[in-house]
Hints:
Elements: H1 2-14, H2 18-21, E1 31-34, H3 49-52, E2 60-67, E3 75-82, E4 96-101, E5 107-112, E6 117-126, E7 139-142, H4 155-158, E8 159-162, E9 165-172, E10 174-175, H5 181-192
Parallel strand pairs: 2-9
Antiparallel strand pairs: 1-5, 2-5, 3-4, 3-6, 6-7, 6-8, 7-10
Amino acid sequence: MLKKQNIRSTIVTGLLGLAIAGVSNEFVAAQAVADENLPSSNKRDVTDIHSICSPGENNASVLVHVENIASVEGNIRAQVYSDKEEDFLEKGRKLVRIDIPVEANEQSVCVPLPATGNYSLVILHDKNANGKADFFSEGFGFSNNPKLRFGPPDVEDAAFSVHEGVNQMTVNLQYILGTDDAKKKKRRSVRRR
């Protein structure tokens, strides 16, 4: 219980608990497709979805359409956890991690999954590609797009079901201080006075 409270405290001060999720040496190859290769983000053509995202060996994957990417720099990181509270955002408990370079302001990421079932997903825009969550300058999003406040969403708000084949979802990134670098500098200077 104390460990969980310490984690929540860290998350509140930094907003999200992705730093807690840690950096592992695991890397799963992924396919990224910039939206310029897809039809408009409002009308996605699912007739050719298997050319973009394969269901993989376990016959389960999710094609995540990431929207609201602030800048075309760094990496997009997708991390998949179980739908259990004790696993959600905990170090060493992620099931899949995908890192791909940002190629456009809207981009799709194919995430292979271990099997059909229930999962939770977090997306990070690692703008400086340092492999760490820089809470005040990088964007975060979760499956089901729950509203972010002073910490991560509850796992129930981010849980989703995966069926056989290619599943799809859209994740909208949110940036704590917005996306304008001038606004960030101004806010920092006001805080230092």
